[in-house]
Amino acid sequence: MLPRVRAVVQRVSRAAVTVAGEVVGRIGPGLLVLLGVTHDDDARVADRLADKIWTLRILEGERSCSDTGAPLLVVSQFTLYADTRRGRRPSWSAAAPRGASEPLVEEFAEALRRRGASVETGRFGEHMDVELTNDGPMTLILEVPAAG
């Protein structure tokens, strides 16, 4: 299996992440990125996904965050790798463990910042309340393979 990170990208009018009553990330119009990491993912794949999302033309007027400077809110979400094919209880075995996924989520956010993005993040491993107003609605699911 080729390494890949998985993301759900939502165009939002606003979005915020709260942990234990404290707002830890908030953006106005921009993109909310829910990011899942699997076992074989690496910094190269995270960088390719960051580039894809940074230049994705899904904002008003078919423009991208790179065109407009719109902010991004990045939230780690291991549940994107849930396996629900059997039974009623999801398996999380395809999700990378914290020791592998936390640095990769941080690398993804840094890759966006290196491109000039304004990036807010959730708080890894915490119970987060994510509030958003989806603009459109516009929601995409992205996977970027290691090669190509």
Note the main attributes of this structure.
148 residues; alpha/beta; D-tyrosyl-trna(Tyr) Deacylase, Chain: A; six-stranded mixed sheet; globular
Detail the topology: elements first, then pairings.
Blueprint: E1 4-19, E2 22-27, E3 30-37, H1 43-54, H2 65-68, E4 72-76, H3 98-114, E5 119-121, E6 129-145
Helix pairs in contact: 1-3
Instruction: Note the run of SSEs as H and E.
Output: EEEHHEHEE
In CATH, the homologous superfamily goes by the name D-tyrosyl-tRNA(Tyr) deacylase
CATH topology type: D-tyrosyl-trna(Tyr) Deacylase, Chain: A
Largest sheet: 6 strands, mixed
User: Whole-number radius of gyration?
Assistant: 15 Å
Beta-strand content estimate: 35-45%
How many DSSP H or I helices? Answer: 3
Anisotropy-based shape: globular
The first-level CATH class is given as Alpha Beta
Give the fraction of residues assigned to helices. Answer: 10-25%
Integer count of domains: 1
Q: Please, could you describe this protein's structure?
A:
The protein is globular. It has one domain (4-145): D-tyrosyl-trna(Tyr) Deacylase, Chain: A (3-Layer(bba) Sandwich). Helix content is 22%, strand content 37%. It has 148 residues and is α/β, with parallel strands linked by helices. It has helices at 43-54, 65-68, 98-114; strands at 4-19, 22-27, 30-37, 72-76, 119-121, 129-145.
